[in-house]
Specification:
Number of domains: 3
Number of strands: 22
CATH class of the largest domain: Alpha Beta
Number of helices: 18
Radius of gyration: 24 Å
Strand order of the largest sheet: 1-2-3-13-14-15-16-17
Largest sheet: 8 strands, parallel, barrel
Helix content: 25-40%
Shape: elongated
Length: 514
């Protein structure tokens, strides 16, 4: 058992792997600095690269005896401009830009008043963009307005200029696209993720619940979602990552980065296992001034639904090049935690930045100090959907534990769960206390690594409640995680051998006879 008291994280840290962190030593250091989930971005690299990264993470997890989750991030239907001459093409305000279907090498015309011609990676681009709609290039730094449609061509005018290089991203905030939720590359990545037992999959550019259903249907065909005959239904998965013999159940994280997803948020939440507030494209496709409010609304709805929520993009962006963040970035991370996010994510900071270890260490420090403050404040409101759902035994038990923790000075909440459901319900209550989650399933431990307050710890199947109490009591005192006489709450089944049931709450003072 390698955990120390400082490892009992409440808000979890996700780190993106890339050239700056793609080696065993750095991955181990990131885990020691508090990273509990690694993101592998399928937009970059090859399947050989992904397999090597996964191997390094699993090896480091085993070596350090810390449960680590792996999140595969699907590229989605990202639209890009075609090839541009070396050095790029400068677009000035008022310039006329033409998009055509056929691939073209874009170059600056000899006559500055002549039209600049681009192509894009999306076959339906010409048909689906309408006159009057905005076309954003290079993460929104360049803005065009569609002025005219001709056969197989769009005529646009530059409203905000800049230099465009090959393969720069294209965003269409006003356009209803018919592009499928999963590209052919995405489908290959899903098959790879199932084969190699990824713990989560993130779906990019979600617009509505149907996009999420398409991914879940594919996972079901691959045996990575519940099917008829499994001892669990789709509605029971929640985020508990139910253990089913030799079956890999992969939770789906929907990335909210398009206006349509914000408009259809409740529909998306109902189909998802978790949500990522992907502020990069969200800030491109929506008014930047509304991003903070949108983030708060998304986190609030996730809280209502008891849905895990990740806040991502540019959290410590300046640490890509600087060993310290800006004060505004520190406040940004803290505010996501105040709002109730399960996890905060590092992207370029750990993927390509100069200071990946320092970024994770800083994120951990901010999260630690913020959660210390939260321990002195009234608890966040309980998840309303889960309160309404309290006819389910685990939800009712979790609500009761919350009351105990509010009334008594409880050091730890300790849960034994073979399927993980009880631990998920306890996490949803947002009690600012570590939840020591014991289970015999390594797969469930890895998936629990994302959830608020859960410290997943492997333990062989137990045969007696008293034996479990004594083992955990000794473990906590021997490792000096708490002092003799400190109060803890146990949540488990009676008898402990029962699966899928949590029907016993025990208040225990460490060191007392059981």
């Amino acid at each position: 058992m390698s955990q120390s008291k400082k490892d009992f994280l409440l808000t979890k840290i996700i780190a993106t792997l890339g050239p700056a962190s793609a080696d065993p030593a750095t991955i181990e250091k990131l885990i020691l600095e508090g990273v509990r989930v690694f993101r592998i971005n399928f937009s970059h690299g090859s399947f050989d690269d992904y397999e090597q990264l996964l191997k390094w993470v699993r090896t480091a997890s085993e070596k350090l005896n810390v449960s680590i989750g792996v999140l595969g991030d699907l590229s989605g239907p990202k639209i890009r401009v075609g090839q541009v001459v070396k050095g790029g093409v400068k677009l000035r305000v008022g310039h006329t830009v033409e998009f055509q279907k056929e691939p073209v090498l874009t170059a600056a015309p000899a006559d500055e008043s002549a039209c600049i011609v681009f192509s894009t990676s999306y076959p339906g681009f010409i048909e689906e963009v309408q006159v009057g709609e905005n076309i954003l290039l290079d993460d929104g730094y360049v803005r065009l307005k569609c002025r005219e449609k001709r056969e197989n061509r769009l005529i646009c005018q530059v409203e905000q200029g800049g230099t465009i290089f090959s393969n720069k991203g294209v965003n269409l905030p006003d356009t209803e696209l018919s592009v499928p939720a999963l590209t052919e590359k995405d489908r290959l990545c899903v098959e790879f993720a199932v084969k190699h037992h990824f713990d989560f999959l993130a779906l990019s550019f979600v617009r509505h619940g149907e996009d999420v259903r398409q991914l879940k249907d594919m996972l079901r065909r691959l045996g990575a979602r519940p099917t008829e005959g499994m001892p669990v239904s789709e509605s029971d998965v929640s985020f508990s990552a139910v253990e089913v013999e030799s079956e890999s159940i992969i939770p789906v994280i929907s990335k909210i980065e398009k206006p349509q997803a914000v408009e259809n948020l409740k529909d998306v939440l109902r189909e998802s296992d978790g949500i990522m507030v992907a502020r990069g494209d969200l800030g491109v496709e929506m008014d930047l001034a509304t991003v903070a409010v949108t983030q708060k609304r998304i986190i609030h709805l996730c809280r209502e639904y008891g849905m895990p929520c990740i806040v991502a993009t540019q959290m410590l962006q300046s640490m890509i090049d600087s060993p310290t963040p800006t004060r505004a970035e520190v406040s940004d991370v803290a505010n996501a935690i105040f709002d109730g996010a399960d996890a905060v994510m590092l992207s370029g900071e750990t993927a390509v930045g100069r200071y990946p270890i320092e970024s994770a260490r800083m994120m951990n420090r901010i999260a630690g100090r913020t959660n210390d403050y939260l321990k002195t404040q009234p608890f966040l409101s309980p998840p309303l959907e889960r309160v309404a759902d309290s006819y389910r035994r685990a939800a009712a038990i979790a609500a009761s534990v919350r009351t105990i923790v509010e009334d008594l000075e409880i050091k730890y909440i300790i849960v034994w769960s073979q399927l993980g459901g009880a631990a998920v319900y306890l996490s949803q209550q947002r009690m600012p206390r570590p939840i020591l989650f014991f289970t015999p399933s390594p797969a469930i431990l890895q998936r629990a690594s994302l959830l608020y307050a859960l410290t997943p710890i492997y333990m062989e199947r137990q045969t007696s409640n008293t034996g479990f109490f004594q083992t955990v009591d000794r473990l906590i005192l021997d490792n000096e995680w708490a002092h003799k006489g400190d109060a803890v709450v146990f949540v488990l089944a009676e008898p402990i051998t029962r699966i899928g049931v949590a029907n016993e709450i025990v208040i225990h003072y460490l060191g007392d006879s059981i």
